[in-house]
Amino acid sequence: MPGDGFRPGYAGVELTSPDPGYEFDLRNGKVVPESSVDGYLSRTATEFVIPEDGDAFIAPGNSLNPADCLKGIDSSPVTSLKFSELEDQHPFCVRSADGRDIVVVRLVEAVPGGGPVTVSLSRYGKDA
């Protein structure tokens, strides 16, 4: 249920980053080499990292839509996205710096010790 003029882009795209040298291209729903795109979600061995000029929010339950994401970012933004906090099917969202894109992310699997990380992504955009 998009909110504030956001329309669905891609939905439920499952991607795997084999190691921290690869990140998720949130705009296009692809895995790309680290530092090769602006709208990204990168990862370390234990957590996700969003761009410095982006915003994020972790849902308290197991569902999240653009309207709830915007409300959450305005009231309870987060800077830490540790895998351990996301394992119970808590989706989170990332808003782009220009405010035109929201991506809802679900952690599917994170192999301990810096191994592969798999996510499911759904993008909503004002230009989707």
Structural shape: globular
Order of helices and strands: EEEEEEEHEHEEE
Strand content: 35-45%
Unreliable runs: none
Main pleated sheet: 6 strands, antiparallel
Secondary-structure-based class equals mainly beta
In round numbers, the mean pLDDT is 91
Rg calculated over all Cα atoms: 13 Å
Number of strands: 11
Q: Which percent range fits the helix content?
A: 10-25%
Structure write-up:
By secondary structure, this protein is mainly β. The chain is 11% helix and 40% strand. It contains 2 helices and 11 strands. The protein has helices spanning 66-75, 83-86, and strands at 7-8, 13-17, 22-25, 30-33, 40-43, 47-49, 55-58, 81-82, 92-95, 101-110, 117-125. Strands 1, 2, 7, 9, 10 and 11 form a 6-stranded antiparallel β-sheet that branches. It has a 5-stranded antiparallel β-sheet with strand order 4-3-5-6-8. Strand 5 and strand 6 (47-49) form a beta hairpin. It is globular. The two termini are 14 Å apart.
SSE blueprint:
Elements: E1 7-8, E2 13-17, E3 22-25, E4 30-33, E5 40-43, E6 47-49, E7 55-58, H1 66-75, E8 81-82, H2 83-86, E9 92-95, E10 101-110, E11 117-125
Antiparallel strand pairs: 1-11, 2-11, 3-4, 3-5, 5-6, 6-8, 7-9, 9-10, 10-11
Summary?
The protein is built from 2 helices and 11 strands; from the N terminus they run βββββββαβαβββ. With 128 residues, the protein is mainly beta.
